[in-house]
Structure formats: structure tokens, C-alpha cells
Amino acid sequence: MRAIVTTRNGDVDVLKVETRPDPVPGKGEVLVRVKAAGLNFADILARQGLYPDGPPKPCVMGYEVSGIVEAAGDGVDRSWSGQSVVALTRFGGQAELIAVPLTQIFEKPEQLTFEQGAAIPVNYLTAWALLVTMGGLKKDEAVLIHNAGGGVGLAALDIAKHIGAMTYGTASVSKHEFLKARGLDHAIDYRGQDWLPVLMQLTGNRGVELVIDPLGGSSWKQSYRALRTTGRMGVFGMSTASASGIRGKLRALKALAQTPRFHPLALMNRNRGVFGLNLGHMWDEGEKVVSWTGEIVRGIHEGWIKPHVDRAFPFDQITDAHRYIEARKNIGKVVLVP
């Protein structure tokens, strides 16, 4: 099979398409012929050597795929063979074939393309955990979605609209028209101005009940200031640290130095909450993920979850795909197709 291999830490030139042995499904696993694989910012950070959860290099990244079951291992009902599925993968997804435990797959809804199917697991599970499970967002509350034009951002917007919340989102101006058409109530330019005063003006100086922030560093300080009484801030990344080589390490150190500390007494006195999410650390919480996935699939069938694929890059254009995400050009999901 062909697979995208991150050969070592570095710039996009370390990415190679190589031939590797076909995997064999073990007990309780199925072999999936990949039709589309998700590309996430974690893959960028892993390539740069800034993602501590990444596997040792050389490695094949990829947390999610959509494809067709080609074979079933021992203990798996053979009726799975030939079915179109979506799967969570603990790396290895950016390949033509992957063996996946049956507990990590679900049937692809018929109305979704394979590319749309690959846009579901990471983005929508992350958004669901942030907004519903941990964020407790309610109807008529206000939420600020940072990087609203990204994959998690659009997923969060779908969910927040369904809940009935007022939505604010930071994004570059070029994405505002799309986001407003998608249903975002207030788009805020974060590049040409300080977004916090704009948000406070829009909310009558009250702030919002929930902020989800994947940026890290000093952004978390501002996001905390944006919270209304009983507000919650969910953090799930540190994308401001992204850069290759020495520059990346320096940016990471700067982001860490700017990271605020939230003391329990201060949180209590301000009536605010801060929580973190790392979906990659939830492999032992399968029943929770299955439950969230069920709600997401229901949303797909009911029509209020609409995964948006910005671009699908062939495996041979993997360097272009990484550059595209690093330049923040994407609106929604970027996927890779064999």
C-alpha cells in the first residue's frame, strides 16, 4: 500500500509517499480501504516536532478515515465486509489501507460523500465535547468560537446553532461572508484589530458564557477576560506555537511563557471555569465517544450537522496540503485522498 510518511521533524520536505506492507486485521479489527483521510493541525505540529503525542518518526499520521471495509478479522461479523464506514484511527490513517478495531468505526451515513465522512470524527467529536459535554452551552447563551472558519470552528457553529446560542467568531475578513451565510451571528476580524474590545462592545460589555480557544499563549488571557459571570473557557490546542525548526521551538517557548495560570481561588471569586480537552487522550473512554458519535450521526440525518470540505488533496500533493493549512487558507476541513 501507499502511505504518507513523516520521515523526521522539519518543513514539508520531510513528507514522503512510500510503499509499505499491507496491514492484516487482527482479532476484533476490520481492514478499511481508505477513500479519504482527515488532515488536522495536530499533523502539522507533529511534523514540526511540536506535538508530544505523535508517534516516533518515521511514522504515518492520521486520526480519521472514511472508506470501505475490505476484510474482517477474527471475532468480527463478516457482514461488515463491503460496508462504507467512518473510523477513528490512532495514527496510520493517511494510507491506502488501515486495520481498525471494530469499536472505533461506524457506518457512513448515505448522504455523505467519503470526503465528508472523513471530516466528521475529529472535528465534530472535539466540538461536541467542548460545547455540550464540558462547556454545557444552553439556548440563548453566547459562545465565542476562535478560528471559526476552521474544521472545529465550523463544527462548533453547527452545534451552537442547533442549541440556539448566540454565536460570535474570530476569523480573517476573507472568511466572514462564508461564515455569515453559514449562520454565524457576529464575525470578528482578529488580524486587523484587537478582537476583545469588539466582542465586549457587541455584547454590551457583558462578555460570553463560553469561549473555545485552540490558539494558546496570550490568547488564553484575553479569552478569559471575555467571560461573563459563570462563563467557561475550553482550551484545546496551542496553534500559535506552530513553526518549523528553531523558530518553532522559540515560538513554543514564547507561547508557554505567555500561558496564564488559573488559581482555584481566583476562579471561585470570579465565578468562572477553565477546562481543557485532548481528544487523543480519550481512547480508554470508548463509551463516551460512542455516545457522542450517536448524537452527531443523528444530527447528520436531521440535517443540522453539515460537514464542509474545503479541499481534497491527492496523497502526492501532501506538501501543498500542509502549506495550505499552515497558511490558514482553509474554510472547514482539508482531506487527503489516495
What does this structure look like?
The chain has 338 residues and is α/β, with parallel strands linked by helices. The protein folds into 2 domains: 2-120 and 307-337, Medium-chain alcohol dehydrogenases, catalytic domain (Quinone Oxidoreductase, Chain A, domain 1), CATH 3.90.180.10; 122-280, NAD(P)-binding Rossmann-like Domain (Rossmann fold, 3-Layer(aba) Sandwich), CATH 3.40.50.720. The protein has 11 helices and 15 strands. The strands form 3 sheets. Strands 3, 4, 5, 6, 7, 14 and 15 form a 7-stranded mixed β-sheet that branches. Strands 10-9-8-11-12-13 form a 6-stranded parallel β-sheet, sandwiched between helices. Strands 1-2 form a two-stranded antiparallel ribbon. The longest helix is centred in the C-terminal third of the chain and has 17 residues, at 286-302. It starts with a strand and ends with a strand.
